[in-house]
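## retry 2 of 3
previous attempt timed out at serialization; input unchanged, resubmitting
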Amino acid sequence: METKLTIRLKKKVIERAKDYAHSHKISLSKMVESYLESITNQKSEDIEITPLVESLSGVIHLTEDFDLKNDYSNYLTEKYK
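## retry succeeded, writing output
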């Protein structure tokens, strides 16, 4: 079921939106509908963790004071000497 919606926007925004819609061969209404659909349909979908990734979880234990950037920098320095 389609329903009419009235919104107030700056004239320049409407003009640019119409030009954009025309150049992409889509109606302004459809463009707005698609945008609203996309932002309101965002769900925090759970990412499925594969058994391999699950088996690797917790394999490496790092100390609290581990500095990844410093360690990686040292690794690169040694590698490219």
